[in-house]
Specification:
phosphoenolpyruvate--protein phosphotransferase, globular, 8 strands, binds magnesium ion, binds phosphoenolpyruvate, alpha/beta, 325 residues
């Protein structure tokens, strides 16, 4: 698939109406990094750090993590890499971590909730990230923020580690950007302060959709029941876009839907200007984006919403068929 789109690699994802959509890739292993050059991605929009923790029999050591993170930044050759701190619990369980039985793990003790209650592991991870950056820019993103204070507290932990590393005489990152993943509907309604405090926000569409429709992403009986192009979900996305643009907060979308061409197009039509996806999706998404007039897609979506269509998929497909033929 990569080969087929190779001629697009160095071209921007620019619509016929002149809107440029930034396309980054998701990663989680050192082995993913060669795809950065191969796909022409702008950077790594989501580096899932839990894979190193899941692949080990014990908590990885700080020095080993710092080495790995430094190699990832090195391989990115100056392109930004957004490291998401440990996102465990729910579907991602560490074999060596004792945790309580939970009636509903997806709604349970996971991600930032664990990190704030038992900060030891995240502090170690933050130290590793700071040491890895040493003189380079560092982008850190906290997963599963569901209320403003969780972001404040996570950020305070990071600030404390920066201060500690400084006192210990380690080189600090050249620049620090601290973001939040928006994965629960609650954050679309967060105080304005949240959008001001975050250096950037990334929509975790997999979880956001699961919680918006109350449909377990792991449950085959319901996981495909609700369309991402459901009018209500796109209205939620539009609301988040508007709240971020009010405060000038950079926004991206890093769930799996970003890598599906029609979904990527509709997210762009709702105002997203940065998407992060599996490397193999970059070619197909770029190919479609470069052939469309986004304002026409947007109009088709708004008309479908006015008509009361449950999903805008039919309207968008019809619009595309007209446009591309
Ligand atoms: C998401 O929830 O959309 C996301 C990107 O994170 P993960 O799939 O790792 O939960
Ligand atoms: Mg998630």
């Amino acid at each position: 698939a990569q080969k087929r789109y190779a001629n697009l690699r160095d071209l921007p994802a620019e619509t016929t109406c002149g809107t440029v959509i930034g396309l980054s890739m998701n990663a989680g292993l050192m082995a993913d990094l060669p795809s950065l050059a191969g796909s022409g991605a702008d950077g790594v929009g989501l580096f899932r750090t839990e894979l190193q923790f899941l692949a080990n029999a014990n908590v990885p050591r700080r020095g080993d993590l710092a080495g790995l993170y430094a190699r990832v930044m090195q391989a990115a050759q100056g392109k930004p890499v957004v490291f998401r701190t440990l996102d465990i619990g729910s579907d991602k369980v560490l074999p060596y971590m004792r945790r309580p039985e939970e009636p509903n793990p997806a709604l349970g003790w996971r991600a930032i909730r664990v990190a704030l209650d038992r900060p030891g592991v995240m502090r170690m991870q933050l130290q590793a990230l700071i040491r890895a950056a040493a003189g380079r820019p560092l982008h850190i993103m906290f997963p599963f923020i569901a209320q403003l204070d969780e972001f404040r507290n996570a950020r305070a932990l990071l600030d404390a580690e920066i201060e500690r590393e400084d006192k210990l005489g380690h080189a600090l990152p050249a620049e620090l950007r601290v973001g939040a993943m928006l994965e629960t509907p609650s954050m679309a309604f967060a105080p304005r302060k949240f959008f001001e405090l975050a250096d950037f926000i990334s929509i975790g569409g997999n979880d956001l959709k699961q919680f918006f429709f109350a449909a377990d992403r792991e449950n085959e009986l319901v996981r495909r029941r609700y369309d991402t192009l459901n009018t209500s979900f796109l209205t939620l996305i539009e609301m988040i876009v508007n709240r971020c643009s009010d405060t000038g907060t950079p926004l991206s979308f890093c769930g799996e839907d970003a890598g599906r061409p029609i979904e990527a197009l509709c997210l762009s039509a709702m105002g997203l200007r940065a998407l992060s996806m599996r490397p193999a999706s970059i070619g197909p998404v770029k190919h479609l984006i470069r052939r469309v007039d986004l304002s026409e897609i947007r109009q088709a979506i708004l008309d479908a919403r006015d008509r009361g269509d449950q999903s805008v998929r039919g309207a968008v497909n019809a619009c595309l068929a007209d446009m591309l033929n």
